[in-house]
Design brief:
InterPro entries: MetI-like, MetI-like_sf. This protein is mostly helical. It has 15 helices and no strands.
Length: about 325
Amino acid sequence: MPSSTRFQRPKGELMSVSTASPPGRRSVGFFERLGQSRNGLGLLFMAPAALFLLLFLTYPLGLGVWLGFTDASIGRAGRFIGLENYEYLWHDRVFWLSVFNTVLYTALASVLKFALGLWLAIILNEHLPFKTFFRAVILLPWVVPTVLSALAFWWIYDSQFSIISWVLMQAGLISAPINFLGDPWNARLSVMAANVWRGIPFVAISLLAGLQTIPASLHEAAALDGATSWQRFRRITLPLLTPIIAVVMTFSVLFTFTDFQLIYVLTKGGPVNATHLMATLSFQRGIPGGALGEGAAIAVAMVPFLLAAILFSFFGLQRRKWQQGGGD
């Protein structure tokens, strides 16, 4: 007989495991765990902004896309008509003229704003007297409300009292006032000039911030090696500034492509639809014209162009990874 007796658990009986919390430790609630989590806390802070964008951006965008497939008009909900609005626009001469005007307006104005803004940024990056004052002054065209700027340009471009025409006539260069807003090509160039004047400060200040991040030692080393100013700009400044240029030009293209206030105050799309952009034509067809479905279809047709601008920024930012030693 064994000296000790072992207690044997009957076969099939399971050992019970206590799930009670250890003494002195309390259970943690969901919101407390959320507050202690970095990702959870970030989502919590982003929730109000996401809700705001959902209500005031996603819903209007979705509604606009839906209206583009209907024959809705002011005072009538409309019915689903499929691609009829887009088929009509495909054969609409005024719509294609607005596309031409928009692409030309965006391309020329964006190139001029970039060239003049970069030139101004390089000047302001030098050691100049009253440099801070000049940096503040060049922001005025960007700070002034667009409608107020448009009214000022409307007076400058007046067919009878234009200051530009008066100066040129006093200099003997012209014999009669220039019809800035009455001639189709004069009107196109005039609204482009107004847009460039307004957009240069944004480009200049943004590129100036990028120039100040480039170490001066790189330029000093290149100068000691005998590099000229143009070689230092082409080999050092421009490559290091490329990511900033991509972002700045993306915003510049978006702002220019969707320009509405400047055109509507100056010309309202005239003369003879010569300055109608897609944004102004969409408004004219949808609100004063009452054809909400057609106006929404024109607005939706702008989306592929805007996506192309965003992709330009994306591929420009890929260069930043290469500069920092990241993936190809």
